[in-house]
Specification:
The complex is a heterodimer. By secondary structure, chain A is mostly helical. Chain A is built from ten helices and no strands. Chain A has two domains: 1-168; 170-317. Chain A has helices at residues 6-35, 43-80, 90-94, 100-125, 133-160, 170-175, 180-205, 209-236, 255-280, 285-313. Chain B is α/β, with parallel strands linked by helices. Chain B has helices at 40-47, 70-80, 96-101, 111-124, 140-152, 170-185, 197-200, and strands at 2-9, 17-24, 29-33, 55-60, 63-64, 81-84, 158-162, 189-193, 207-210. A five-stranded parallel beta sheet of chain B has the order 6-7-8-3-9, sandwiched between helices. In chain B, strands 2-1-4-5 form a four-stranded antiparallel beta sheet, covered by helices on one side. The chains are: A mainly alpha, B alpha/beta. Bound molecules: adenosine-5'-diphosphate (ADP) and magnesium ion. Adenosine-5'-diphosphate binds next to helix 1 of chain B.
């Protein structure tokens, strides 16, 4: 590890704790998958109920800590950019190795999975008969796998950054891109985002929580795309500067955190509410409402910078 | 209704309850009888969801209490059962009155109503003149009566009494039997662990359950 700064060290400790808890919960989850039978009153089942109760509490805190830890991760990457030649922000750091890109993707996926799990756990703990315990523990092996991959990528990434080698800055990474996927996103970001918003709102108005959850996946992806290609140039007031990370820096008033917290809050609660509906058959109405409110807030945030730019300069970028 | 099906409670070095079954219908009064150490207190604790069985099914008022997560178990205890503990379990530093009104704390009962109800019970049990005294300073018999008043103050549908007359004289025992008769008349369920002949031979019980193995 060439960059064992405190922020990275915190992450490593968190991973160690998480791994330890995950091993315990994986053991219990295997037992639940094989043995769980709530109507059974045998010693085995009672023991299992005690264990699931304990593990649920542990995992609740482990996942809950993992959510703000994401911000530490982004912040640490941003800080590291000043050590790497060519990097202006976290984008350069994440692009410094072949693992960085996948690391951030897995981190985001796990963030969402954590919220889904926490939601199922929340509704499970509000019922006397623990109706979702079996589902909750069936999710653990999946989470164990995705977190395991994230952890591995994290170690590979930070172990293989070579401070002597210059890296690309975000301008190069996001602006001069010719890959098919990125070209698609950069050209259609705004219309994609509009479509996702309309779909999300329609599902909300028609009271279709599962569709609403699915639409939120699209909204999350389109929301990031529109932020990079449509909104961020207006924040930087520079048509060629397209980057989702520089907006997190003090020079731009840490604006990015507002964008990400709103987008994540809205889409994660929408997705989790959809999954919960799928499992239980009834929609957690308040979560769906919170999701829609935050998604609207994100739309307004996104519109704010281009519109105010237009009002002062009478032109679009 | 209290229904045990093949309940076992095992500790590291003892098995106070083994393969025990019983059924007490709603509104019935039952006596749990057996020598000391035969598991009476443990059975009451199981019925009150104060502890969990090692195996077996426990159903109280239609609820599988052995499977209740702790938050629900404490809610169940608060709302559904009144327990007269063998060792009283009073808060020694609180006054008798505060001890007696303790179960009403989480409810939204107005203070005046709480006091009225407490004094009514304490008067019946002859401890109303001890209301302001710290429970730790009460005599054994007085503590037992304070514990009885506390168990009954929120009119629980199920009353569990663990040797409730162990420290009461004949006159007070009669008073308690009167109170129990009142509970029975109201159609509430009553389970009394005792070997006091005054209770077993009073005719209050609909059934006697033996805990001998
Ligand atoms: N928490 C405990 N840990 C270990 N042993 C216990 C515990 N509670 C009760 N026992 C044992 O269980 C047996 C029965 O106790 P108890 O239910 O109090 O009987 P009873 O009320 O009929 O006298 C006793 O031998 C006691 O030592
Ligand atoms: Mg006893």
């Amino acid at each position: 590890m060439s960059f064992l700064i405190p922020d990275i060290f915190i992450q490593i400790i968190l991973y160690a704790i998480l791994t330890f808890f995950f091993c315990i919960s994986l053991y219990v989850s295997v037992r639940v998958i094989i043995l769980w039978n709530f109507s059974d009153t045998s010693e085995k089942q009672y023991l299992l109920e005690k264990q699931t109760y304990l593990v649920s509490v542990i995992m609740k805190y482990a996942f809950a800590v993992n959510i703000p830890a994401f911000l530490i991760f982004i912040y640490a990457n941003d800080k590291l950019s000043s050590y790497l030649t060519g990097a202006m922000c976290a984008a350069g750091v994440l692009n410094a190795t072949i693992y960085g890109k996948y690391l951030i993707i897995f981190k985001i996926v796990n963030l969402y999975l954590s919220v889904v799990w926490l939601t199922v756990n929340h509704f499970d703990s509000r019922h006397e008969t623990m109706p979702y315990t079996a589902v909750k523990f069936r999710m653990i092996p999946l989470l164990f796998t995705t977190f395991g991959i994230e952890c591995t990528l994290f170690i590979l990434h930070f172990a293989s950054i070579d401070p002597a080698v210059p890296v690309s800055c975000c301008n190069v990474i996001f602006a001069d891109d010719t890959s098919v996927l990125r070209t698609f996103f950069s050209e259609h970001a705004v219309s994609l985002f509009a479509a996702a918003f309309i779909l999300t709102s329609a599902a909300f108005l028609l009271k279709r929580p599962v569709l609403h959850g699915t639409a939120n996946v699209l909204y999350a992806i389109a929301g990031i795309a529109v932020l990079i290609y449509g909104v961020s140039p207006y924040i930087y007031e520079l048509p060629t500067h397209k980057c989702p990370f520089c907006i997190l820096q003090s020079g731009y008033g840490y604006t990015g955190y507002w964008f990400y917290i709103t987008l994540f809050g809205g889409t994660a609660s929408g997705i989790a509410a959809g999954v919960q509906t799928l499992i239980s058959g009834t929609a957690p109405k308040r979560m769906v409402n919170v999701s829609m409110a935050l998604n609207c807030a994100y739309l307004l945030l996104c519109a704010w910078y281009p519109v105010s730019y237009f009002l002062t300069n009478r032109t679009w970028l | 209704m209290i229904k045990f099906i093949s309940v076992t409670k095992r500790y590291k070095d003892s098995v106070p309850v083994e393969d025990f079954s019983m059924e007490i219908s709603a509104g019935e009064t039952a006596i749990l009888s057996g020598r000391s150490g035969s598991g009476k207190t443990t059975i009451l604790a199981l019925a009150a969801a104060l502890t969990r069985p090692t195996s077996g099914s426990i159903e109280v008022n239609g609820k599988q209490t052995a499977k209740l997560p702790e938050e629900f178990a404490s809610l169940f205890r608060r709302e559904s059962v009144g327990i007269i503990f063998q060792n009283y379990n009073l808060m020694p530093n609180l006054s008798t009155l505060d001890n007696v009104t303790l179960p009403l704390l989480p409810t939204k009962t107005p203070f005046r109503q709480q006091r009225e109800r407490a004094f009514e019970l304490m008067e019946k049990l002859g401890i109303d003149n001890k209301a302001k005294i710290a429970a730790g300073r009460l005599s054994g018999g007085e503590q037992q009566r304070a514990s009885i008043a506390r168990a009954l103050i929120n009119n629980p549908p199920i009353v569990l009494a663990d040797e409730p007359t162990s420290n009461l004289d004949a006159k007070l025992t009669d008073k308690l039997l009167e109170i129990f008769a009142g509970i029975k008349a109201e159609g509430r369920t009553l389970l009394i662990a005792t070997h006091d002949k005054a209770i077993t031979e009073s005719g209050i019980a609909d059934k006697i359950i033996r805990t001998e193995k």
